[in-house]
Design brief:
The structure holds two protein chains of two kinds. In chain A, a hairpin with a 3-residue loop joins β1 and β2 (about 15-25). Chain A folds into two domains: about 1-30 and about 210-240, no CATH class; about 75-190, Rossmann fold (3-Layer(aba) Sandwich). Chain A starts with a strand and ends in a 21-residue tail after the last strand. Chain A is of the alpha/beta class. In chain A, α5 packs parallel to α6. Helices cover about 30% and strands about 25% of the residues of chain A. Chain A has helices at about 40-50, 75-80, 95-105, 110-125, 140-150, 170-185, 195-200, and strands at about 1-10, 15-25, 30-35, 55-60, 65, 80-85, 160, 190-195, 205-210, 215-220. The longest helix of chain A has 16 residues, at about 170-185. Chain A contains seven helices and ten strands. Chain B is an alpha+beta fold. Chain B folds into two domains: about 5-50 and about 160-280, no CATH class; about 55-150, 2-Layer Sandwich (Alpha-Beta Plaits), CATH 3.30.70.3040. Helices cover about 70% and strands about 10% of the residues of chain B. Chain B is built from nine helices and four strands. Chain B has helices spanning about 5-15, 15-50, 65-75, 90-100, 130-140, 155-195, 200-205, 210-245, 255-280; strands at about 55-60, 80-90, 120-125, 145-150. In chain B, α8 (about 210-245) runs antiparallel to α9. The longest helix of chain B has about 40 residues, at about 155-195. The chains are: A alpha/beta, B alpha+beta. The interface of A and B includes residues 75, 91, 93, 151 and 154 of A.
Chain lengths: ~240, ~280
Amino acid sequence: MIKLSHVSKEYPKRGHALRDVSFHIKKGEFAFLTGHSGSGKSTTLRLIHMADRPTEGEVRVSGFSSERVTERDLWKVRRRVGFVFQDFRLLPGRTAQENVAFVLEVTGTPAKAIQPKANRLLAQVGLSSKAGADVNELSGGEQQRVAIARALANDPYVLLADEPTGNLDDRATRGVMELFWDINAKGMAVLMATHDLEVVRRHSTARVFELDNGALVYDSAASEAPPVDRDSSSFDGETP
Amino acid sequence: MSYALREAIAAFRRAPVLTGLSSAMVGLALFVVGLFALATYNLQLALAAIEERVEVVVYLRDDTRQSEIDLLLEELTDMDEVRLVTYVSKRDALERARAELPEFGELFMDAEVNPLPQSLEVELRPGDRSAEVVERVATAAEGHPFVEDAQYGREWVDRLFALRRIGLASTAVLGGAFALVAALIIGTALRIAIFARRDEIYVMRLVGATTGFIRRPFLLEGAIAGLGGGIFALALTYATYRGVYAYLFEIAWVPGGWVALGLGIGSAFGMLSSGLAIRRHLHEV
């Protein structure tokens, strides 16, 4: 499904963002990618989404290799990988339904199938009643649900989420996390970057990767003892 | 209706002020090109009218025999560059002088002492009215002993062709410069319009829309903005033409082909500028 083999990423000004990272995520797996700000979480997600190419090593996503996929074929990778961001990145001035329908339209869904599928996706994320609302009028949690519905529009194999609860209050966070679990329960792999240890702790069955200064320092599937103090609520040192 | 066309039209509807301003900027840029085209076309017409008058007049001695005149007439007519050779007898020359120069009427009253020579007027084919051709024809005629003189106003022809060369060079250089400035303005206007929609491009890239699919509505939008600007420029240029014609001097309107070409160039500029402007956004995700 997703395989990183000795992946390093170096930026000209920033230096090394990732150093020799290797891991493998199987179909239907739920994994957290944790670590401090700047530890390389977002870079890892960008490499999996093939928005960037590794300086060394190889990223494989659903049969596509970062070494061989061309710019021209990137769209094929993108349709297999859904992406959710902390800041939602919805199209302002459009309704929830229009935001989802936009994705279906630009990825070639037949015209007749667009509205029913957009409605079904919004129902899946619990937003049927807000389908006609302008996204600017929705709460943070609702906007993130629209973003998740949009990410599911292509029926991807894996859902990447970069700090999806970072802008949400506790209640909205719980709702969104339940949604991710529901999606995962239907067989879709989820890889979520977060520095919120509280979120990780609540979902103890998930696999956990920890990055530190660009290096993979912990994989719960391979090691018992996490290097970070799990009593704090985040990598920034807050306590519950 | 295809997605590309629908989105292109929707873009105008969503941001009418921005797209209107883009079209206006394109229109003003093309208006300068239109004015230049109008001036160039009229300069061309003026030069062509002057060029029409380029001819060689071969003056013959009074004692030239008819057979010699016929021989030279045939020889000149056979030259590839020559369109028409007209014989003007002494009598014809006198009558023409009387008609054209009435102030010397008395001088030309006595046909017995007609001072004017008989001549052959050599008209050249269009495209062969250069100084070199004119000189070649004149030299060929002057080779005959019964030819008194062959005149064509060498200095005048040289100046005319120098003027024409300057006209061509300035058309190429200034036209190119105006077109470049117009392209830059159009590019900037459309870049602003595309920048306003960078979120859409980002989302399209994010979810796996193909590059061609993303580009198409923007290219179409650029073409429509370019065409709209072209029509605006055409209206301004035509208004200027009417104003000049009515209040300053008589000028000609540019041919339909030029108008069609201008509108086509406006659309092409719009499309090209959009294509270039969108390129950088396509690499953001």
